[in-house]
Amino acid sequence: MTAVPAKFAVAAAVVALAAAQKTAVTIPPNAQLTRLLSVPSPDDESSRMLRVGDEEDDICHPITRWEHLPPLPEPKRCEMRMEASGGTVLVLALVAVFTGMTQGVALGPGKLTGAWWWLFFCLIYGEAACAIGCLLGIMWGDPGVVKRSEETCFPIPAEVADRLRRGLSLEQMGNVTEDGRTYCIRCLLWRPGGLAGRSTVHHCGTCQRCVVDFDHHCGVFGRCIAGDGFAGNMGYFKTILSMAAAGAITCIAATFVEFSVNPPGRHHPPYGKHG
Ligand SMILES: [Zn+2]
Ligand SMILES: [Zn+2]
Predict the structure, then answer these.
(1) Ligand 2 centre from 222 Cα, in Å?
(2) Which ligand has the shortest distance to the CA of 224?
(3) In angstroms, what is the span from residue 145 Cα to ligand 1's centroid?
(4) Cα–Cα 20 to 30 A to 43, which of 20, 58, 84, 140?
(5) Average pLDDT over residues 84-110
């Protein structure tokens, strides 16, 4: 009675072994199984995303920071240098002429003395110092250039972003206007103040920058002159013009006073002699 169940047991064992072997054949290899069944670790995920990004890098360049934007257009540096040199020479020449004439005519030995001397000395050299200070301010100061930042560069208009991603030129595009704001296609930024109705921001073709409260690009100083009132470098510009006029007036006034105080017909006694 026990032999029959034993045969069944052996047969069942053989069938089970065969089934196990069959299963072993159809089960995927270990690596594949692991990848299918395991939950991806953060490292796996990041590496997968990195790989996908690399594959799409040739097609898509997502710009998420303003530092990723193409560089700003190059200013016309040669033209600016020529203009700035001319302006510097002009200012220094006027300073030399006005101080030299005032010094020679009214402040030299045997000329004005006392309060007159101090008045014209302080005026002419103060104006000269002020003019040179304004020259430095115009040359090195910020006229009000709109800087790139997260606030000014984003959001990038859809068409611009699309062209940048595809590496296409923006030269044929005009500035983009949205919601009362203007996006400069050359600086790749939104101009400030658009919502307030102030359209005083202008892109200077020489400096190749957008400038707030743009007045003009000065062909004498080689810089944009911009600013509301005395903001930007407008204060320097107005002051240096005033100093040119003031220098001329001081020079003429000193000459007039000198000839009034010491008329040409009156000879000063030579030094060391009296009578
Ligand atoms: Zn611009
Ligand atoms: Zn300019």
Answers:
(1) 7
(2) 2
(3) 9
(4) 58
(5) 95
Report which of 178, 221, 194 is spatially closest to residue 84, judged by C-alpha positions: 221
Spatial CA neighbour of 98 closest among 80, 123, 73, 76: 123
Give backbone dihedrals phi and psi of 191, rounded to 5 degrees, phi first.
-75, 140
**Please, are residues 201 and 210 in contact by the beta-carbon 8 Å criterion?**
yes
Sequence letter at residue 69: L
- Classify residue 118 by its DSSP letter: H
pTM (2 decimals)?
0.71
Instruction: Convert the pLDDT of each residue in 98-122 to its tens digit.
Output: 999 999 999 999 888 899 999 999 9
DSSP output for 128-139: HHHHHHHHHHHH
Cα–ligand 1 centroid distance for 188 (angstroms): 7
Q: What is the pLDDT of residue 17?
A: 40
Average pLDDT value for residue range 78-88:
96
C-alpha 50/C-alpha 113 separation (Å) is 83
